Structures are given as structure tokens and as C-alpha cells.
Amino acid sequence: MGSVLYPKLQVLDVVAAVIVDGDHYLACRRDAGLDAGGKWEFPGGKVKPGETAQQALRREIREELGVDVEVHDMLTSSQTTKSDRIIDIRFYLATAAERPTHSDAHDKLTWLTADELPALDWATPDLAAVGQLNSKYALELSAPMLN
User: Fold this and answer.
1) How does residue 19 score in pLDDT terms, banded at 50, 70 and 90?
2) Is there a domain that residue 109 lies in?
3) Domains: count for the chain
4) pTM reported for the whole predicted model
5) For the domain that residue 19 is a member of, what is the CATH number?
């Protein structure tokens, strides 16, 4: 229940894909005209009512990047408070059927190793995922899979 002093904030359920190709991760720079324009992020978007996180992520990546992804485990999550809303974002590891070459919401795409990720100017919500990749997950994700 909100009040004048503590209004109830809208919570946005957002998902993002940390797309992995070998030991490289896809980073996307937001178009200058968008909120947080010029900042780097992992691609994704809002979860629609009735969608699972995985369904939303597959839809968003198809819309933004034009490729299909297989969604794997959740990497991490973060919450960011904007003036009138809370953004609750979950980051999932994903693999793409092919490397995307363009984006409708980004002006640049690049593939970087975990060590290179911190050099970019990241959107605040994505810093949690960058930190995870740059630590324990960097070694695990680049190691060959054993069956």
C-alpha cells in the first residue's frame, strides 16, 4: 500500500541474455536516443503477462537481434530504482544459433572476453552480470563441456 510519503512503485519484470560464444560474450550499446543511450548492456526486455522468463527472453532476442537463442541457467539478478519504478532484472546465460549482426535497439554490437567486459561504460543494472562473468563464471563458461 502506497502513501504520500512512500508511494507504491511499479515493478518492471525484465530479463536479459548473456549470450556466450566460446569465451566471448555479446555486449550491445544502446542507441543514443533511448534511456541510458550510449551505455552498454546485455540484450533483453520486459516479461509480458503470461510469459515465462525464458519465453520472454527468446521473444525479445528474436525482436532485437533477429536470432534464436537457447536459454540456459540464470547467472544473477539486480534491482534498480528509477524515480517511479523498480526494475527487477534477471540475467540468463544463452547461446545463439548464429552470431547477430544488427540490432533494432542498439547502435553497436561487440564480442568480448570476460576480462574485456569491465572496460565498457555499462548501464547500472548490467554491472551485476559483468561482475559475475569477470569472476568465477569466466573460467567455468570458457572451459570445455564434459559429457
Assistant:
1) very high
2) yes
3) 1
4) 0.83
5) 3.90.79.10
Q: Which long-range contacts (CB under 8 A, 24 or more apart) does 77-84 make?
A: 77/128, 78/125, 78/126, 78/127, 78/128, 78/129, 80/124, 80/125, 81/9, 84/9, 84/10
- Integer Cα distance of 4 and 15 in angstroms: 31
User: Is residue 56 included in any domain, yes or no?
Assistant: yes
Tell me, yes or no, whether 67 lies in a domain. yes
Is there a domain that residue 3 lies in? no
> pLDDT band at 121, cuts 50/70/90?
very high
Q: Domain containing 104: what range?
A: 10-142
The CA–CA distances, whole Å, from 121 to 41, 46, 105, 118, 132 equal 9, 22, 17, 8, 16
Where is average pLDDT lowest: 4-13, 42-51, 121-130?
A: 4-13
DSSP designation for 13? E
